[in-house]
């Protein structure tokens, strides 16, 4: 689906939406995103019966209870991914690549300036946008502080979001459905994929040399 956005929005390079945004005026942005939205929505509907090929979850389910946290806005991955949006519309991987980050409110407002504006959740979204405060999303997945973690090395090695985070496109409310943040799970996958397992891969001890 990403190729559609690349075609319609010059400047968009998987993950560079915001860089693209800076280059065009807000008006042009809205027109561009609308084009994307309608195109993508129509396509998503057309493709529904064939259900996109799914990447399998590789890590075990989280055996511990994992209610979704109360979020400042009841954002649904299910609703938005059904529109055909790629993850990179909202989750970029800026240098040094450790984090996937959360979208700027302007990314949400590019559609919600005119979509569902009568809904209380969208009015709250508009208030965050006006105040220029980032939306205080409550974090769901977190490794123990001090453990070395980077998304970039995993994405470069061909690991997909769904392998570690499960079937996000089916989730109305994001919760910690997998046990990817535990050491046993890191080690199991590293062993299976021939990735390093010496302690210093993920801990600052023992010193590398
Ligand atoms: C339209 C924007 C948007 C798109 C597209 C999107 N996300 Fe998100 N994502 C969010 C927002 C907003 C949050 C924070 C709220 C929440 O946790 O539900 C989030 C949270 C998450 C989290 C939880 C992060 C944490 O630990 O707190 C994961 C994992 C995630 N997204 C994965 C994905 C994957 C995988 C895709 C593509 C299949 C995707 N997202 C597509 C907006 C988006
Ligand atoms: C590509 C366009 C697009 C983007 C970008 C987008 N949305 Fe949406 N959003 C929609 C559409 C379409 C709906 C469904 C509207 C409906 O059912 O009336 C929706 C629905 C919602 C709803 C449910 C509203 C309700 O109460 O029915 C919330 C909340 C929401 N979006 C929040 C967000 C947030 C937060 C972001 C940014 C992280 C975001 N959206 C980004 C298109 C978008
Ligand atoms: C190899 C497993 C793995 C893969 C693949 C993976 N993640 Fe993560 N993700 C994690 C772990 C572990 C954390 C917690 C990291 C932390 O505490 O900083 C996390 C945290 C996040 C967060 C919240 C913190 C942040 O980085 O901003 C988001 C958003 C997220 N992932 C989205 C994604 C998306 C989107 C993809 C695919 C492009 C993806 N992840 C691929 C394991 C993975
Ligand atoms: C889905 C499988 C998978 C999971 C789960 C996973 N990893 Fe990895 N990890 C890999 C692969 C594959 C590489 C790339 C190895 C390479 O490039 O040679 C990698 C590389 C790394 C690297 C970079 C190593 C280096 O020196 O280049 C770090 C650090 C790392 N992982 C930490 C973690 C941590 C911490 C966890 C658990 C929170 C984790 N990984 C979970 C598959 C996984
Ligand atoms: C692939 C990444 C990875 C490797 C390699 C790794 N660990 Fe861990 N380790 C983690 C993660 C992630 C946690 C946090 C787990 C949690 O929060 O449940 C952790 C936590 C720990 C803890 C408890 C918390 C702390 O930091 O004190 C100890 C002790 C530990 N590891 C020892 C080791 C030893 C010894 C080795 C080498 C034999 C090793 N680890 C190799 C990822 C790794």
Sheet with most strands: none
Order of helices and strands, N to C?
A: HHHHHHHHH
The residue-averaged pLDDT reads 82
Low-confidence stretches: 1-35, 37-51
Strand content: under 5%
Helix segment tally: 9
Structural class: mainly alpha
Cα radius of gyration in angstroms: 19 Å
Could you characterize what this model shows?
The structure is a single chain. The chain is elongated, with a radius of gyration of 19 Å. The protein contains nine helices and no strands. The model is unreliable at 1-35 and 37-51 (pLDDT under 50). α5 (105-112) packs across α6. It has helices at residues 2-8, 17-23, 26-47, 77-81, 105-112, 120-131, 151-156, 161-165, 183-192. It has 209 residues and is mainly α. Helix content is 39%, strand content 0%. The protein binds heme C (HEC) (5 copies). Residues 87, 91, 99-101, 141-143, 149, 151, 154-155, 159-161, 163-165, 180-181 line the site of one heme C.
């Amino acid at each position: 689906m990403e190729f559609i956005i690349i075609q319609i929005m010059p400047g968009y390079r998987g993950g560079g939406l915001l860089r693209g945004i800076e280059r065009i005026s807000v008006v042009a942005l809205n027109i561009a995103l609308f084009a994307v939205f309608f195109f993508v929505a129509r396509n998503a509907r057309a493709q529904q019966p064939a259900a996109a090929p799914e990447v399998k979850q590789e890590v075990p389910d989280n055996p511990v209870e994992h209610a979704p946290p109360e979020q400042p806005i009841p954002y649904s991955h299910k609703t938005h991914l059904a529109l055909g949006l790629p993850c990179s519309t909202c989750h970029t991987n800026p240098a040094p690549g450790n984090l996937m980050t959360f979208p700027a409110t302007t990314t949400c407002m590019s559609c919600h300036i005119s979509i569902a504006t009568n809904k209380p959740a969208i009015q709250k979204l508009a208030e965050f946008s006006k105040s220029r405060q980032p939306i205080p999303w409550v974090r769901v997945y977190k490794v123990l502080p001090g453990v070395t973690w980077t998304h970039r090395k995993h994405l470069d090695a061909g690991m997909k979001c769904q392998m570690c985070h499960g079937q996000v496109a089916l989730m109305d409310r994001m919760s910690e459905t997998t046990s990817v943040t535990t050491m046993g799970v890191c080690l199991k996958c590293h062993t299976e994929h021939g990735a390093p397992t010496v302690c210093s891969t993920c801990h600052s001890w023992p010193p590398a040399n």
